[in-house]
């Protein structure tokens, strides 16, 4: 009986650890708490971050941002959403500005704290942090119906 | 009165907690104890040991107090936790500047068409009589691009190009200047001089050759003053936006402008200041970027104008066009077709089809590419023969290689082979350094 209890305990603790690890490896899309954006599909997220969809359902214009160069979060968003490397990303927004498709390139934000501060203080601000860095100061957007840490969440930090 | 056990207990507690108050009490008790409370039967040796231990504890506590004081000093002296400064709100106007340019070398077995804007050999040097040599180093276009956001939904965009003309003197042209108002995803307004939204190439690539994989634009999409056949610029009003269309991701555009003038007087074909007639060009179209075709885009449009070419009958100009594009980080495939229909009043209708296909693939910093261009400008169309000198069949392949030296500089080598009505087949090699800054 003791053995069984021990196994169950280890299983529960182990599962919790795995969940925590998953959340840490997931990339959370964050917006301000007042944002109307609750849930997006991967395709919608791609359109928003590529500036192909400029405004949310509430009519507020998205203000795009990118994490600091070299951060794992930026690398994750470039590969999983933009499907571009750094040079292609820079060229993409330069060309989008040049053709008039966008007004400016995304703002550069440093660190998870900066990202949270940016979205909570900027109407329409959207950024991303490691799942474990998301807290009550921001709203975490569901992607394909899932939150970071849930099985099948599509945005991963490698 | 405390007995020895109680005293030891307190001493133990004092040792554990390090509480100075308790220690003081214990010390007081100890100091008083021999005189007042220790029973006569108490062992003097034990008391001595006890006092010794108390002294040791006292020393230890003094040391800990000193450490605590030191720590408190350090903590109070340490800088306050970093507080992120509030992000400044966007301020207007917010000016951005980018520059583009290219420098070229062209060697050809025909004389260079000096009307071309350095972007390779333009296809049909009429009669071979124009000035120019068969090889030249060329200063390309020096392109200054400004954009400034004036308010959340309002901005201006300006592109000025400095380039050399046929007399080798440099001049400046305002290529684009427009006010853009973007109140909704589905409703954006642009007012000024801009590129017509005809096809893909003309909207994706403007004067900065650095953006485009190839060294040159497809010949019929060259700028109007460089021999291009399609009206790529206009001065007027554009309304465009995204349509609610689910996975189809449709976008529309509707443009009204002065259109293009056809003249042989040397005046600018883009009617910047004065429209030569009261007819306005209208350009409409739809573009789809469906979810099921990631990286892909296709679209179709229709351009209409009534033009009054110098010395010719008023002509109805209609240009249906379509394109299909696939572009990702590795591949680039572009297919576009235009059909220019000219209907002079009370005269025969002329049709001039033109198309190109381009394929490129990235291998790291290298991008080999190939393009085939086809133009059949009606030889019965006086606009092409009498005014532009561009009538007839022109086709040929181009192959090239682009090498991205850095994120801001690309070297390109392009070979063009050209077959033209009434001329010997020609070929040309273009070397280009294209950059942005």
In summary, what is this structure?
The complex is a heterodimer of chains A (158) and B (437). Chain A has 158 residues and is of the alpha/beta class.
Task: Report what the structure shows.
The complex is a heterodimer of chains A (158) and B (437). With 158 residues, chain A is α/β, with parallel strands linked by helices. Chain A is 43% helix and 16% strand. Chain A has a single domain, classed as D-Maltodextrin-Binding Protein, domain 2 (3-Layer(aba) Sandwich), CATH 3.40.190. Chain A has a six-stranded mixed β-sheet with strand order 2-6-1-5-3-4. The model of chain A has no long low-confidence stretch (mean pLDDT 87). Chain B has a 16-stranded antiparallel barrel with strand order 1-2-3-4-5-6-7-8-9-10-11-12-13-14-15-16. Chain A binds chain B through residues 43, 47, 52-55, 59, 61, 83-88, 90-91, 94-95, 97-100, 103-104, 113-114, 117-118, 121-122, and chain B through 84, 86-87, 94, 96, 98, 145, 147, 149, 152-153, 155, 157, 178, 180, 182, 184-185, 190, 194, 203-204, 206, 208, 211, 242, 247, 249, 289, 291, 328-329, 404, 407, 436.
